[in-house]
């Protein structure tokens, strides 16, 4: 594979290649294409065989093909380093808004009181399902674009992951995501923290429920209606 | 310094019927009123905002690379150097526990603490300083009335009248007490001016009414209620009135004898004083009949193993070591405010209020809550608002990150009010006498930029 160096102008939005295409089952849409920045792709001879993406302040290096099978902890590191590279707080806000636009549509039937994420200053709904392979899938929505951006990032990290990995993500690891809330305060407006906690709690509940059903003495058909298989699996 | 690009706004029709039913926010009549008010109030060559700003060191800083524009005064006010010095002086020179000590420091601390009480009494024109009970804040003061007066005076069927625009601290304690005593809470809704319906309130007052709990100035709507009239109607049926004066005491002359209020509460931190102290005003005859709220030291007379006797008010309601330094700081804040003059502060803030309202009207698709200012209706210097299709939290975040403008977003501890208005949250800009017209200009410029930014992402 020819080594590539992709540079983008500071005000545009790099790191698109970080995102697993599989994450966007419905993201092959016109809006996403319209928002693509102009990429200057130049072959770079003599460099290592990496896909190098540079923003105005930092390079993030990703081995080719690694994005597809990344674990949650790798994705957490990538996400944190991306936001850390944005030293201006306003750039973080802009990045979140960009990711907010990528959030998959939310199924209106899931907009239920029990799916409300508690403790957020904005309204956030989170729908969590577990598929027959035991992977956990999320959908979220919010009335605030910044909150949607948080949800988008968190879902990218944890969608389709093993429950143990989801439950293992800590708030401290994602502290660098702080946008609009200064410091690491336990403030009730800390949306991303509340969403993370909700994702962990719902995952734990789904696992417990699944475990109970799997160990139930009555024989169940292998594809019980309780186990919802996610799109694309 | 304004950062960010000022983008030419798309041409929305100004009066968007989808935004609000009462959209003509800027009728010509309002502009004439605003102009005539400016003509009446002579500020001199330097406005009150400019002349007092040097006293507030915290205002002179940058946040996120922009000059701080602090517009969250309804949440808490900033403190002048005089208050900071009073606090430091207390802790450096005479910090000591009050009331019981014999030695010099204790005597001095006691004197200053009781002097602060006298200052509060004089500030609100209470007839005696024993009518002032120091509490942690206004919320605790309301709880004190609820648990002490409420539990011993309310019975099944007693009615408590509140408005839907009350702060949570003025609703939640009464819900608990109503549950314990069998009392019934009745709520007054808003009228067509988006102000609590005073006529509806008058109609609700009956022989069953024991208490009317009402705010003086609304922290969301910016409206001012006619407390004197409400008190007259309540007293006619033998009901008491508890006035939540948190947003009025810092901004205007409040005279508890003139209002004839039975109870009045306020917080120090909203009136340029430190956090951690507030007060309850209660008429002497009422306080004398009330049992204690919190038990402990200070509030007792004699303690035996099987019973205790209690002190006279206000000590009866001040269990434990009080926030001594903070109360003295509140006294210093009152000295500072009195040095300016509350009428002068009120006049200046009225003008600023109208200026803020007028300028906010110019933002497309904005919906400002509360009454439109006019000759009859005066607004406080705060505006809660929403801009169509943009969440107020997103607005506040961007304003802070990009422009250093501090406003609040959320329900402002008034969820029932927001539910009535049909929104989950609103943004709120609230001013104090150390804000200037330039602050308002900067806020509006930043808000325009913010709205364009979010609209460009749609």
UniProtKB/TrEMBL annotation, chain A:
Pfam families: SufE
Domain Fe-S metabolism associated per the UniProt entry, residue ranges: 81-201
Superkingdom per UniProt: Eukaryota
Transmembrane segments: none
Family according to the record: Belongs to the SufE family.
This protein's name: Fe-S metabolism associated domain-containing protein
TrEMBL record, chain B:
Domain of life: Eukaryota
Cofactor: pyridoxal 5'-phosphate
Keyword terms: Pyridoxal phosphate, Transferase
Main EC class the enzyme belongs to: transferase
Pfam families, per database record: Aminotran_5 (PF00266)
Family matches, as SUPFAM superfamilies: PLP-dependent transferases (SSF53383)
EC identifiers of the protein: 2.8.1.7
Reaction equations catalysed: (sulfur carrier)-H + L-cysteine = (sulfur carrier)-SH + L-alanine
Keyword Transferase among UniProt keywords: yes
Protein name: cysteine desulfurase
């Amino acid at each position: 594979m020819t080594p590539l160096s992709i540079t983008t102008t500071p005000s545009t939005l790099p790191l698109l290649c970080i995102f697993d295409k599989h994450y966007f089952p419905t993201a092959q849409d016109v809006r996403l294409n319209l928002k693509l920045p102009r990429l200057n792709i130049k072959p770079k001879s003599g460099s290592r065989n990496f896909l190098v993406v540079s923003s105005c302040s930092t390079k993030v290096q990703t081995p080719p093909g690694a994005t597809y099978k990344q674990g949650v902890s790798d994705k957490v590191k990538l996400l944190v380093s991306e936001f850390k590279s944005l030293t201006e707080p306003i750039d973080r806000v802009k990045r979140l808004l960009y990711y907010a636009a990528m959030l998959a549509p939310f199924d209106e039937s899931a907009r239920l009181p029990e799916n409300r994420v508690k403790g957020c200053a904005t309204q956030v709904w989170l729908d969590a399902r577990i598929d027959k392979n035991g992977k956990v899938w999320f959908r979220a929505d919010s009335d605030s674009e910044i909150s949607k951006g948080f949800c988008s990032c968190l879902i990218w990290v944890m969608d389709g992951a093993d429950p143990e990995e989801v439950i293992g993500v800590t708030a401290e690891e994602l502290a660098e995501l702080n946008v609009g809330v200064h410091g690491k305060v336990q403030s009730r407006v800390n949306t991303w923290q509340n969403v993370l906690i909700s994702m962990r709690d719902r995952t734990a509940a789904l696992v417990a429920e699944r475990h109970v059903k799997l160990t139930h003495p009555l024989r169940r058909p292998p594809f019980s209606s309780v186990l919802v298989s996610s799109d694309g699996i | 310094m304004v950062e960010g690009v000022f983008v030419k706004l798309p041409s929305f029709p100004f009066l968007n019927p989808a935004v609000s039913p009462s959209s003509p926010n800027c009728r010509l009549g309002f502009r004439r009123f605003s102009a005539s008010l400016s003509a009446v109030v002579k500020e001199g060559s330097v406005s009150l905002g400019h002349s007092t700003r040097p006293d507030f060191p915290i205002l002179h800083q940058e946040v996120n690379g922009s000059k701080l524009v602090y517009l969250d005064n309804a949440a808490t006010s900033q403190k002048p150097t005089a208050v900071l010095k009073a606090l430091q002086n207390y802790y450096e020179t005479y910090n000591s526990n009050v009331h019981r000590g014999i030695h010099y420091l204790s005597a001095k601390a006691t004197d200053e603490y009781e002097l602060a009480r006298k200052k509060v009494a004089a500030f609100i024109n209470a007839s005696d300083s024993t009518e002032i009970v120091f509490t942690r804040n206004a919320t605790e003061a309301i709880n004190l009335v609820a648990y002490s007066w409420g539990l011993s005076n309310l019975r099944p069927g007693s009615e408590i009248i509140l408005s839907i625009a009350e702060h949570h601290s003025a609703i939640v304690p009464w819900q608990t007490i109503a549950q314990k005593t069998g009392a019934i809470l009745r709520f007054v809704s808003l009228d067509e001016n988006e102000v609590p319906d005073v006529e509806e309130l008058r109609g609700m007052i009956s022989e069953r009414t024991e208490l009317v709990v009402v705010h003086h100035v609304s922290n969301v709507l910016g409206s001012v209620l006619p407390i004197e009239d409400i008190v007259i109607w309540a007293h006619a049926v033998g009901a008491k009135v508890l006035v939540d004066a948190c947003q009025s005491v810092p901004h205007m002359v409040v005279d508890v004898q003139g209002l004839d209020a039975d109870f009045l509460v306020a917080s120090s931190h909203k009136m340029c004083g430190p956090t951690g102290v507030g007060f309850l005003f209660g008429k002497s005859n009422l306080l004398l009949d009330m049992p204690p709220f919190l038990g402990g030291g200070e509030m007792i007379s004699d303690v035996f193993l099987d019973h205790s006797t209690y002190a006279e008010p206000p000590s009866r309601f001040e269990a434990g070591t009080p926030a001594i330094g903070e109360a003295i700081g509140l006294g210093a804040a009152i000295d500072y405010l009195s040095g300016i003059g509350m009428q002068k502060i009120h006049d200046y803030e009225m003008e600023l209020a109208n200026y803020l309202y007028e300028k906010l009207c110019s933002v497309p698709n904005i919906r400002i809550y509360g009454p439109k200012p006019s000759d009859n209706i005066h607004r406080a210097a705060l505006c809660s608002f929403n801009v169509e299709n943009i969440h107020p939290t997103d607005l506040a975040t961007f304003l802070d990150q990009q422009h250093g403008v501090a406003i609040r977003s959320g329900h402002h501890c008034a969820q029932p009010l927001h539910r009535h208005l049909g929104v989950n949250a609103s943004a709120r800009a609230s001013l104090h006498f150390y804000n200037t017209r330039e602050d308002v200009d900067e806020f509006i410029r930043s808000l325009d930029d913010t709205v364009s930014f979010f609209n460009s992402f749609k």
